[in-house]
Amino acid sequence: MVRYAGILLLIGAALLVPRHLSGQGDLQSLLGTPILEAGQTLKDLQQFIETRLPPLPKAVSAQAWEEEVARLRAEMFDKVVFRGAAAAWREAQCKVEWLDTLSGGDGYRLKQVRFEAVPGLWIPALLYEPLDLKGKVPATLNVMGHDRGGKDVAYQQIRCINLARRGMLALNVEWYFFGQLSAPQYNHGSMNQLDLCGTSGLAPFYLALKRGLDLLLSHPHADPKRVAVSGLSGGGWQTIYISSLDTRVTLTNPVAGYSSFRTRIRHHKDLGDSEQTPCDMATVADYDHLTAMMAPRATLLTYNAKDNCCFEAGYALPPLIEGAVPFFKLFDRARALRGHINHDPGTHNYEKDNREAFYKMIGDFFFPEDKAFRAAEISCDKEIKNKQELLVPLPQGNASINSLALELSKDLPRQAGPPENPAALAAWTKDYRAKLSKIVHYKKYGVKAELVRKDAFDGVEAHSWRLRLDSDWTIPVVDLNPGGKKPVVIRLHDKGRAALATEKNGGALPGKRVVAIDPLLLGETKVGTRDYLWALTVGTVGERPLGIQAGQVAAVARWLKERGLGPIGVRGDGPRSSVIALVAAALEPDAIASAELHGSMNSLKEIIQQNRIVADMPELFCFGLLESFDLNHIADLTATGSVRFEGPAAK
Question: What is the pTM of this model?
Answer without folding.
Answer: 0.94
